[in-house]
Amino acid sequence: MVEKMIKYSFILLDTETEGFLKHLQELGVVDITRSRKPVDEYSASILEKATADKRALSVLKKTDYKEDPDLKKIEEAARKAEFGKDLSEETFRASSRIAELQTAITNATRTARARMPWGEFDKALLDRLEQSGLKVRFYTVSKKSFDESWKELYPLQIVSEDKNNIWFVTVSEVSDGYSFPVKESPAPEGSSDDAMAEVGFMRENVIQEKGKLLKLTDSIPEIEREYNRKLTELDLYLAGNSKESVAENRINVFTGFAPETLDAGLRKEFDSMDIFYLAEDAVEEDNPPIKLRNNRFASMFEVLTGMYGMPEYREYDPTPVLAPFFMLFFGLCLGDAGYGLVLVAVGAILRKKVPGLAKLAPLVMTLGVGTFFIGIFMHTFFGFDMLAMDFIPEWMKKCMLDGEVAGFPAAMVLAIGIGVFNICVAMIMKTACFTHRFGFRNTLSTWGWTILIIGGIITLGFSFLGILGSETAKWIFIGLAIVSGLGIYIFNDMKRNPFVNIGSGLWDTYNMATGLLGDTLSFIRLYALGLAGGMLGSTFNMLGEMLMNSCPVPGMNWLLFAIIFVIGHALNIALSCLGAFVHPLRLTFVEFFKNSGYEGSGKAYNPLSMKKEA
């Protein structure tokens, strides 16, 4: 549910503003309307510095040289490293320098390999030789192209050769009209040893820079504190700039919101601060921030509501209804009891071993439990059909879904039935919420469609079960059509011309008929995804059994089966979980929210607080 909010209006002298906002930060429960982006150069500079700290933290938290072959040298460099006061800037400088040096090392290594066939020589000596009038020229040709007669015609010396090429040089006077049958190669700027010496020098520089980063990792808590300080400073500054100034900037007026449950304690705090304030119940026109309050089960699914958008203040919170439906959809899409147990195990690991994802662990475990029981109902366990297992008790098999309904697979009929029920619940919620927000007179069309569709489905169901006779059902349908038709076609807008209302009702009828049909058929995906995952799991089992039965090596057959089983089902779980999350999310965001009239355009409750996450 959406928590009720209290609106506070504060009136302060300009000199009291800073202390007042700092006190609100300490309380951490009042949402002050603030700018969504820096409002001037000062706030922009704060944000820029905070962003630099966050980037530096990202670099330092990834710094780990335990597997580096130069670890000892890096640790020695870390002990000797020195840097300035700006830790974030030092981090960027060292990280950028490492990247530049590693690129240069790659290029220099490539150069050394290219120079290797030319052997060792002193480039300075060659330059002095050219200044004295003799030039050394470099050539590379294939062995097939090399002419042995060149040795007799030119002062030629072969430097090196391999099975494909020959590298050689000639010496001639600089000033003569020298020519040679093949194109001259570019002269190397130095020997291979020169390039490798340069590589060694750059690697030493990399070690020094890595040592700086390693030493900077000890400053992570300090950078995090500085990052937190800058964010709270920015938050405070932006909150201060949301003020409405009056009386020539000597008096400031603020507006804030807090949950009603905290009102008594907040009033005591404000009274002790000796400030003037007004407190009243927030209304929809105030556009108060939204804070959800649900039970332990539904609160796990609030993250899904937040992904779509928070409800408006007088709008309903869809989470309590979304939660069981999403768990049901997820379980049907995954459809395997064994996979449900795997999810429970994954959730337990996340809770104990992965602090960053611990908040998601309860949701993962809950979805796993739901999948386990739905998987039993769908009689699938790691791709095996539980109905074919002799050790499963008969009473349990009777609780499993099997067979056909009216010539269609029972699972497909169940998926359609769940879709119809989901849409009916959505329409009831829409009718109740719209009536509460806009009044009964302004929602007669919504009432008409709800009465027609839900009343028609109930009547059809009773007739199918034999509770109502065909004649009785016919008159009920006629009554529903008359009552609903008045709301849909005549009284859908009391202020408009009746003929305009009729036209609007006809257009609404077209949209409703086509939309409901498409929405209902969308739920077939629950059956299709569960069927696809089950068939893929069964296929991996069959592959494992085939390898196990055909293996000629004693004792290896079970190992082969285990390998195929584990790898195959791991892939299937990954694919199935992705589909089991995305498609129920789509059914919720499109089919359910559309038919329930949910807008989700509210803003989340974000109180002014000292606590900020890096």
Structural class: alpha+beta
Rg, please? 38 Å
The share of residues in helices is: 55-70%
The biggest sheet, with number of strands, parallel, antiparallel or mixed sense and barrel status, is: 5 strands, antiparallel
- Give the total of beta strands: 12
Summarize model confidence as the mean pLDDT.
85
What is the number of helices? 21
Strand content: 5-15%
Overall shape: it is extended
Which segments are poorly predicted (pLDDT under 50) over 5 or more consecutive residues?
none
Please give the alpha-carbon distance between the first and last residues.
30 Å
Please characterize this protein's 3D structure.
With 614 residues, the protein is of the alpha+beta class. The chain has a domain at 121-190. The protein contains 21 helices and 12 strands. It has helices at residues 17-27, 41-61, 71-80, 87-115, 123-131, 150-153, 192-216, 220-240, 263-272, 296-299, 302-308, 319-334, 337-353, 361-377, 394-397, 410-438, 444-465, 470-490, 498-522, 524-550, 556-596, and strands at 5-13, 31-32, 134-142, 156-161, 165-173, 244-246, 251-259, 276-281, 380-381, 384-385, 404-405, 408-409. Strands 1, 2, 6, 7 and 8 form a 5-stranded antiparallel sheet that branches. Strand 6 (244-246) and strand 7 form a beta hairpin. Helix 2 crosses helix 4 (87-115), helix 16 runs antiparallel to helix 17 and helix 16 (410-438) packs antiparallel against helix 20 (524-550). The longest helix is centred in the C-terminal third of the chain and has 41 residues, at 556-596. The mean pLDDT is 85.
